[in-house]
């Protein structure tokens, strides 16, 4: 088993006043040649956005963009005709940028901060027609069970959102002192595990809130929660 450990305090950080951004991989003005990507996973940003603030209209091309609000409300508008769609905590949003799209993202609350993960995955098909979707996923259905959120548009998992890459994004919420096994779909894939909250043991490593580990060259591996723990799994092809 090959592992890459990213402690929470080694992430890139940018304080823009209205935006507090943590970058697991090189992004914007933060660059680390050893942290460009994990296989097809290019970006994992952990953003806190002040009330009423957000990102003005900007373009994307040939990227699969997945947004997971953890608390608060995101408002989204784009050049595909979506007008200030509300994406709440508990929902997941996907956008295939394809041959080109413009969008805006703001905190939909006048009072509360918005915390979200934004994930960019390198697609396996370029210059496709841009597309947008969102879906609610009930937290009760991931209590000690793996809950797939996003999968491939061509051979994906039923009831998940779809992207142009043979990737799987999943969550699980573990009770304290609960063992859990994760099985990868293929030996040439890897999975990036982010501890959203809690404490986790993987082999001899203990991971805490916002620590992450990339795992590859293995079919399955075991972990155990040391407290109530919420995990995000991003499984991707390692060769792109």
From TrEMBL:
<feature type="domain" description="Quercetin 2,3-dioxygenase C-terminal cupin">
    <location>
        <begin position="154"/>
        <end position="236"/>
    </location>
</feature>
<dbReference type="InterPro" id="IPR003829">
    <property type="entry name" value="Pirin_N_dom"/>
</dbReference>
<dbReference type="GO" id="GO:0046872">
    <property type="term" value="F:metal ion binding"/>
</dbReference>
<feature type="binding site">
    <location>
        <position position="58"/>
    </location>
    <ligand>
        <name>Fe cation</name>
    </ligand>
</feature>
<protein>
    <submittedName>
        <fullName>Redox-sensitive bicupin YhaK (Pirin superfamily)</fullName>
    </submittedName>
</protein>
<dbReference type="Pfam" id="PF02678">
    <property type="entry name" value="Pirin"/>
</dbReference>
<dbReference type="InterPro" id="IPR014710">
    <property type="entry name" value="RmlC-like_jellyroll"/>
</dbReference>
<feature type="binding site">
    <location>
        <position position="105"/>
    </location>
    <ligand>
        <name>Fe cation</name>
    </ligand>
</feature>
<dbReference type="InterPro" id="IPR012093">
    <property type="entry name" value="Pirin"/>
</dbReference>
<comment type="similarity">
    <text>Belongs to the pirin family.</text>
</comment>
<keyword id="KW-0479">Metal-binding</keyword>
<keyword id="KW-0408">Iron</keyword>
<dbReference type="Pfam" id="PF17954">
    <property type="entry name" value="Pirin_C_2"/>
</dbReference>
<feature type="binding site">
    <location>
        <position position="103"/>
    </location>
    <ligand>
        <name>Fe cation</name>
    </ligand>
</feature>
<dbReference type="InterPro" id="IPR041602">
    <property type="entry name" value="Quercetinase_C"/>
</dbReference>
<feature type="domain" description="Pirin N-terminal">
    <location>
        <begin position="11"/>
        <end position="121"/>
    </location>
</feature>
<dbReference type="InterPro" id="IPR011051">
    <property type="entry name" value="RmlC_Cupin_sf"/>
</dbReference>
<feature type="binding site">
    <location>
        <position position="60"/>
    </location>
    <ligand>
        <name>Fe cation</name>
    </ligand>
</feature>
């Amino acid at each position: 088993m090959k592992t890459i450990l990213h402690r929470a305090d080694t992430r890139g950080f940018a304080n823009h006043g209205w935006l507090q951004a943590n970058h697991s991989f090189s992004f914007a003005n933060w660059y680390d040649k050893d942290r460009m990507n994990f296989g097809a996973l290019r970006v994992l940003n952990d953003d806190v956005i002040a009330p009423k603030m957000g990102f003005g209209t900007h373009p994307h091309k040939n990227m699969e963009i997945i947004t997971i609000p953890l608390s608060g409300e995101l408002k989204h508008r784009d050049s595909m005709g979506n007008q200030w769609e509300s994406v709440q905590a508990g929902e997941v949003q996907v956008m295939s940028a394809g041959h080109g799209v413009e969008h805006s993202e703001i905190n939909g609350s006048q009072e509360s901060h918005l915390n979200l993960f934004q994930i960019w995955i390198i697609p396996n098909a370029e210059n496709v027609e841009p597309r947008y979707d969102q879906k609610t996923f009930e937290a009760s259905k991931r209590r000690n069970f793996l809950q797939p959120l996003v999968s491939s548009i061509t051979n994906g998992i039923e009831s998940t959102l779809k992207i142009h890459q043979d990737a799987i994004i999943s969550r699980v919420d573990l009770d304290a002192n609960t063992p859990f096994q994760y099985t990868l779909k293929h030996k040439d894939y890897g999975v990036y595990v982010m501890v959203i909250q809690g404490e986790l043991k993987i082999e001899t490593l203990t991971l805490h809130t916002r620590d992450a580990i990339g795992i590859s060259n293995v079919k399955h591996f075991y972990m155990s929660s040391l407290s109530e723990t919420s995990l995000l799994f991003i499984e991707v092809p390692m060769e792109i």
